[in-house]
Amino acid sequence: MNLIQLIRYGCARLAKDVRGQDLIEYALMAGFVAVAAGAVMPNVASSISTVFSEVASVMSVAASQS
How confident is the model at residue 19 (pLDDT cuts 50, 70, 90)? Predict the structure, then answer.
């Protein structure tokens, strides 16, 4: 199997693999809703920012432990 065939095979497998796709879609949707809520209600924007920064710090700690 040459390099081109290997790349094609890997891309075909990657295109068929849908594990985790739902989680990513839900996370993107939650992000869009949060941005829209922040745009419509400016006083909520600071709370949303706080929540996202807390999530980012928790994920950063989790990434550093593994």
Answer: low
- Is this prediction's pTM over 0.90? no
Q: For residue 12, is it within any domain?
A: no
* List of residues 6+ apart from 62 with CB closer than 8 A: none
Structural domain tally of the chain? 1
Domain membership of residue 60 (yes or no) is yes
Q: Is 48 exposed, middle or buried (0-12, 13-18, 19+ CB in 10 A)?
A: middle
Distance CA 24, CA 56 (A): 16
Which residue range is the domain that position 43 belongs to? 20-65
C-alpha 30/C-alpha 54 separation (Å) is 15
